[in-house]
Design a protein that fits this description.
- It contains 13 helices and 20 strands.
- β4 and β5 form a beta hairpin.
- About 35% of the residues lie in helices and about 20% in strands.
- It is globular, with a radius of gyration of 22 Å.
- The chain has a domain of about 110 residues.
- It binds flavin-adenine dinucleotide.
- The site of flavin-adenine dinucleotide (FAD) has 38 residues, from α1, β15 and α8.
Length: about 475
């Protein structure tokens, strides 16, 4: 053990999750060691669409990075003949009130430009006097089975640290070094996936085109590709991030016969088929990356002196946008993990259960058939969306509790009582007023339809228009069956 590190908490991984833990330890005056290379501003990246907790945390705790935040006003989703839009401003009144209380400007849910964010976050976090940053890689972990304690962390230069507590934030591309040392076996949920993803850049370095922005530009656009129309089955994302757009597709790893380039080409075509024509704005290609990934459950995510964060703990459908939020929860709990690991661990477990509820709702949308009747289709999709909303709100409550507990009693009361208590009543009105589902006869009209009702522009707090007057629906949306009006 070297002198400059001593016996301290150790964090593995110096990207968003590890940096957030470091930030909170420093904020509480706790000396610690952060191990990992400075994040390079490379493309493409994952972890760009944030849920309620992630969005709120970024704006509350890190308003200085607002240039990397881009509005996520809606979630558009496309599956076969159906398309829908879900207005994320449903949480607007709560966030709006909270932001006003704390004195920060209101922004809706956000997309996060990880290319810029992570490097700048690293520079700021590692400047803190309580953080000892070591640009190295962990190659081994010593674990005491009897006491469930991590005893040592071995670096690639042979140095060995003895952590008082270990935060494992080594993320998606780690070699699951902690699982191996602790002999933790993850359970595969569903089928193994393969993901191809890339960024398209806007012409002249910006994503602006003439005229008002198309609806998809302020939305997380989720698309369930179906072989009948799209040649492949898969789940795709299109996430606009200001001067570029993030595109990716997840397919069954065993069934996939396509190259990464072909997967992206088929995804581009599938979006275009629904009228999401992002290539007219973002035309410059960049590197395409392909990686295998799995949805996995982990039997133990924390122990006597260790906790797993982000991808190292559980991995659910990326469409839940919940991983960054989960990391933020653990980061807020970091000081409590040092004092009372079991208490902090219980809160974390409850939070993760709620993340899985979101996973199953999303899995239902992607993989269960949509009933043939309009009423059946509407009920199913609306039910899934409401389930999605309420699990987000559960997480928000736990996050508020975590945040309050680690600050003064006064702030706990502010978060938990004034804000959280308003939530349950809110759920009742969300499904009706904020979800819109359509089944136009022409696939190409899907995007035009779901964004025609001024939803992309509802930046002010208020319900999305559902029962839109046909005269206000926008131009040339013919023969639309408006399922949501049932
Ligand atoms: C297809 C897909 C899409 C996703 N989309 C979203 C999304 O939209 N929203 C969301 O919230 N989440 C999403 N996720 C989850 C996403 O991976 C994480 O949210 C996000 O990247 C969290 O950042 P991180 O810091 O935990 O991990 P990473 O960004 O993976 O960083 C881990 C860091 O640890 C370092 N490291 C690894 N091993 C070691 C070692 N042995 N020693 C030292 N350092 C090490 C790495 O170099 C890296 O810098 C997605 C995941 C997948 C697979």
């Amino acid at each position: 053990m070297t002198q400059h590190t001593g016996e301290r908490p150790v964090i593995i991984g110096a990207a968003l999750s590890g940096l957030a833990v470091s930030y909170y330890l420093s904020k509480h005056g706790i000396p610690h060691v952060l191990i990992g290379r400075r994040p390079a501003p490379t493309r493409p990246r994952l972890g760009e669409s944030l849920d309620l907790v992630g969005s709120l945390e970024m704006q509350l705790e890190f308003p200085q990075y607002s240039e990397y935040y881009h509005p996520k006003d809606t979630i558009g989703f496309y599956k076969g003949d159906h398309a829908g839009v879900f207005c994320t401003n449903l949480t607007g009144p709560i966030i709006h009130g909270l932001c006003r209380m704390i004195g920060i400007p209101f922004i809706p849910l956000i997309h996060l430009d990880r290319v810029g964010f992570d490097s700048r976050f690293y520079d700021d976090v590692t400047r803190a006097p309580h953080c000892t940053a070591i640009e190295s890689t962990v190659v081994g972990i010593d674990y005491d089975d009897d006491h469930d304690r991590v005893m040592g962390v071995v670096l690639d230069d042979g140095e060995r640290l003895e952590p008082t507590f270990l935060f494992d934030a080594s993320g998606f591309e780690s070699r699951q070094i902690l699982d191996t040392a602790l002999r933790i076996t993850k359970t595969l949920v569903g089928r193994s996936q393969y993901v191809a993803f890339t960024h398209y850049l806007g012409r002249d370095g910006n994503g602006e085109a003439g005229g008002p922005p198309p609806g998809w530009k302020h939305a997380t656009n989720l698309l369930r590709l179906v072989a009948r129309y799209d040649e492949i089955d898969g789940v795709a994302w299109a996430i606009p991030l200001g001067s570029y757009i993030s595109i990716g597709v997840s397919v069954d790893a065993d069934a996939n016969r396509h190259s990464d380039d072909e997967l992206i080409r088929l995804t581009d075509a599938a979006y275009e088929r629904r009228g999401v024509e992002y290539k007219s704005v973002f035309a410059e290609p960049s590197r395409i990356k392909g990686i295998p990934y799995e949805h996995t459950r982990t039997p133990r995510i924390h122990g006597a002196n260790w906790v797993q964060i982000g991808y190292t703990s559980n991995q659910v459908w990326f469409t839940s946008s919940s991983s960054v939020g989960t990391s933020c929860l653990v980061a807020n709990l970091a000081p409590m993990f040092l004092r009372s690991p079991r208490r902090a661990g219980r809160l974390y477990e409850r939070y993760v259960q709620s993340v899985w509820r979101t996973h199953w709702r999303q899995d239902g949308i992607f993989n269960q058939p949509i009933p043939d009747t309009e009423l059946g289709a509407y009920r199913k999709l609306r039910g899934d969306m409401i389930g999605f909303i309420s699990s987000n709100e559960d997480r928000y409550m736990l996050y508020s509790i975590a945040k309050g507990r680690e600050n003064s009693l006064q702030s706990a009361l502010r978060f938990s009582s004034q804000v959280v208590k308003k939530l349950p009543g809110h759920v009742a009105v969300l499904g009706r007023r904020y979800v819109s589902i359509a089944r136009p006869d022409d696939l190409g009209k899907q995007s035009q339809f779901i964004y025609a009702a001024k939803i992309p522009h509802c930046r002010l707090v208020g319900p999305c228009p559902m029962r839109d007057d046909p005269g206000e629906r926008g131009p040339s949306v013919a023969k639309v069956k408006l399922v949501s009006d049932l």
